[in-house]
Design brief:
With 403 residues, the protein is of the alpha+beta class. It is 34% helix and 13% strand. The chain has a 5-stranded antiparallel beta sheet, sandwiched between helices. The protein has a 3-stranded antiparallel beta sheet with strand order 5-6-7.
Amino acid sequence: MYKEQLNLTSPEPPVQLHQEASWVQFHLGINRHSLYPRSSPIVSKLLRDMRDFPTISADYSQDEKALLGACDCSQIVKPSGVHLKLVLRFSDFGKAMFKPMRQQRDEETPEDFFYFIDFQRHNAEIAAFHLDRILDFRRVPPTVGRLVNITKEILEVTRNEILQSVFFVSPASNVCFFAKCPYMCKTEYAVCGNPHLLEGSLSAFLPSLNLAPRLSVPNPWIRSYSLAGREEWEVNPLYCATVKQLYPHGSSDRLLNIIDMAIFDFLTGNMDRHHYEMFTRFGDDGFLIHLDNARGFGRHSHDEVSILAPLFQCCRIKRKTLLHLQLLAQAEYRLSDVMRESLLEDPLSPVLTEPHLLALDRRLQTVLRTVQDCIEAHGEQSVVADGPVGQWAPDSSRANATS
């Protein structure tokens, strides 16, 4: 099967698949609560392997391949050539999603940009993984930064002729490439190395859908993806009552998991959460996978409070989540400090600018004030939901909080 996936045509022996490979062990460690255990040496090894292992193939992701085939372009409001991601496969047969650098760290999203035309930022993917781990959600796939030689590690190893055809050398003698699609793809949307090296994020792939089927579910608080439109939740403050009547939000942890996701997205500033995915094997109470975080950390100077609509409209939060947020609001475990310390591990450090780190503290206070307003209005017993006993307890050391 993996010979076929590699599209091997040479008589040379294929790369060997080893059960002890970090990506295999990562897949085996997924459970009904999270993508990886809290203290998992496998995650650290997987991050090192994605950072260091040679690439043996490169290809477009399934999204780009779909655009190359049948595409209802009337439903696409963004120039898709701006958004580019590739699947890189490594010498241990693991693979990762590569998102190249599109913006400098200190560039903010222009205030007139709609969220659905914003750039996808590689450093936002990296920072989202670290924040998700600090919040003890562990629902973002392991993600690491890497300086990629796009000539040797993409162009020379790809077997996709279309991908090969979009590489060119710029007037500044830098090697560049852009997304190939049936409309509005221009060289000015290209990403360029310096002259061959380019920063990017690498996110570990989840198990194949054949092995671990997943559901893709529309977010009940989805935003309008038209230039002038509003969804019901934006005009109806009682919208949560409607959501609770829809299966399975009224009889499972699904709604509480959506609120967790909204808090996470508010902290990162990500407005583009139109769907979420979950493993079918774990049923209705399984965790939501926090995928596609590249539109976070766009504007440190603005807090988009509407992202918190699931929290302030439903006035519910897991006790586990609330305790962890309260811990990270204390001076000894200040979220910005823990985040700064965690991001030092990444090869592309500094991943976030100081204003983005400080914005996390400000937004955390907004979340806690929102919860307190709910408690004052409805009582703690109605607002704070107790989860399974023993899932989490505050640790007394910074090292445990960071991990």
